[in-house]
Amino acid sequence: MKKYLVFLLFIGIVAESCNKNDDDPIIEEVEEEVVEEEVIEEEVDIQIQNFMWQTLNNYYFWQADVPVLADDRFSTQTEYETYLASHPDPENFLLDELLFSEDRFTFYSDDYTELTNLLSGISKSNGLEFGLSRIGSSDDVFGFVEYVIKDSDASTKDIKRGDYFIGVNGTDLTVNNYIDLLFGDNDTYILNMATIENNTISPNGKEVSLTKEEGLEEDPILASTVLNVSDKRIGYLMYNSFTPGSGEALNQVFGDFKSENITDLVLDLRYNSGGRGTTAQILASLIYGTNTSDLLYRTRYNDKVQALFEPGELDNNFVETTGTFNGNSNAALNTLNLTNVYVLATGASASASELVMVGLEPYMNVVHIGTTTVGKNQGSITFVDDPENGNFYDPEREDQINPENQWALQPIVSRVENSAGFSNYAEGLIPDIELEEDVTNLGTLGDPNEPLLARAIQEITGTGAKRSFEVLMPVNLISSSKLYDDRNSALILDNVSESLKNAFKKVK
Fold first, then answer.
1. Do residues 452 and 270 make contact, with C-beta atoms less than 8 angstroms apart?
2. CA gap 469, 454 in Å, rounded
3. How would you list the strands of the sheet with 295-300, edge to edge?
4. Is the pLDDT assigned to residue 36 strictly greater than 60?
5. Of 1, 120, 401, 456, which residue is most buried, by most CB within 10 angstroms?
6. Residue 71: helix, strand or coil by DSSP?
7. CA-CA distance, 391 to 93, in Å (whole number)?
8. Residue 114, pLDDT score
9. Strand, helix or coil at 426?
């Protein structure tokens, strides 16, 4: 797609009037001066806009609901190019013209490397994962530390889970400024720490300086252990992101659980905002079983894409190996073949986390402990300007990406449903046992006394009924270090993108 010329016509009008004189009142006169017509030739590069329109016209889940994306919207190539050129700002073009009003989760970047790194669990971060909660009914906000990423800048500082902060660089946090203060361009900032006493939060004078690092890679398995309680051997796994390639590490953890002869499993997804669909398949199969004829989830696309597939082609079944996607070694799975699983999930749990819960539901007893989840029942794929590959991102084809267009799109392309046809959870999954996190008693992750885990243990063993789970100061979550950016709550359909590519090749 070449650059396109737009001709802009300017007509200038100059108005003059007499100055008023206090002694001599006069009538104000206006004199118009017509300036010669000036034609300015402005060159608009429409390569990015063309990439966006073509991608969404083909794959966008709501393609039929956006009139400008209709296949017959433009009668000629000239009309099409003129339209693209009339929207010279790519970001505004995408947001104002191409996205459906109900779309909450499509995202994009003007640098595909930054986006693909983020989706692989690599980011610029100081390693502090935190939630943000309102103070009462006011607009004031405080932060509470959820956990610290290993080998990060935060891991070297005096800060830990259960600590609180109320300001940044001496400025109190509010609903209006927390994004700029915590997620802005400043790589280094100082947290103004706080203390909670009698449900009142106040500054304590302590300061913690944190610096963001390029390329920080988080191990998504934060904790795994086996707890002996009564006559039960309970496996506990805290998994924080469905990152590519982590299927191998998950398989190793489940191998340890299997050798320890665990009787029950507590899967902690309370801060897991999503990731790869292939990794969700591995985790679900490790829990339930490896019967590859059983459907875990099915994807549904727009009518144009759906017509490319035969019945059953979009089924995603349980798997018996780690597969070869994302560097996995195709190792046999150490499945537990359980009939019950206890999932800790909250308002920070989304996408692939919800998919595992929904996908397992028809086959086993899934006990959801926590709060209502985000509600992400949609899948997305990464696209770049590589027309010969259908614009699908392929790390082995980076030399084929248009060097003059480094943008990447992560549009919603599908809706997912389980084997029972259930997909209606856009408002989130409601817990079987509701229990909010208490910011005054967050506890230690993996410790049997941590409230959410303790409640799961109580459900498993039927003991400890006298324990109180009263929440003194519930989390009034407005955002978090993950949820503030929609890119962190994506369900990435990497295996389906291969099917899509093959389908489009058949019709070309």
1. yes
2. 9
3. 275-276, 491-492, 378-380, 412-417, 295-300, 315-317
4. no
5. 456
6. coil
7. 19
8. 87
9. coil
Question: Whole-model pTM?
Answer: 0.85
Per residue in 417-461, pLDDT (tens digit) is 999 999 999 999 999 999 999 999 999 999 999 999 999 999 999
Comma-separated ranges of CATH 3.90.226.10 domains in the chain: 218-378+415-471+502-507
The pLDDT mean for the chain works out to 88
- Is 490 strand, coil or helix? coil
Nearest to 111 by CA among 485, 327, 385: 385
- The whole-number pLDDT of residue 506 equals 52
Residue pointed to by tokens 């499945």: 335
Q: What is the mean pLDDT of residues 255-267?
A: 98
Burial tier of 233 (Cβ tally within 10 Å: 0-12, 13-18, 19+): middle
* Alpha-carbon span 233 to 181, nearest angstrom: 45
228 forms beta bridges with 233
For the segment(s) 122-213, the CATH number from 2.30.42.10, 2.40.50.140, 3.30.1360.70, 1.10.150.120 is 2.30.42.10
C-alpha atoms less than 13 angstroms from C-alpha of 471 in its C-beta half-sphere? 17
The position carrying tokens 């209606």 is 424
Q: Distance between alpha carbon 364 and the CA centroid of its chain, in Å?
A: 27
Sequence ranges of the chain with CATH classification 2.30.42.10: 122-213
The answer to whether the CB of 134 falls within 8 A of the CB of 103 is: no
CA dihedral 78, 84, 88, 93 (to 10 degrees): 170
Does residue 66 carry a pLDDT above 50? yes
- In the numeric block, which tokens belong to residue 37? 């017509």
3-state secondary structure 288-355: CCCCCCCEEEEEECCHHHHCCCCCCCCEEECCCECCCHHHCCCCECCCCCCCEEEEEECCCCCCHHHH
CATH of domain 218-378+415-471+502-507: 3.90.226.10
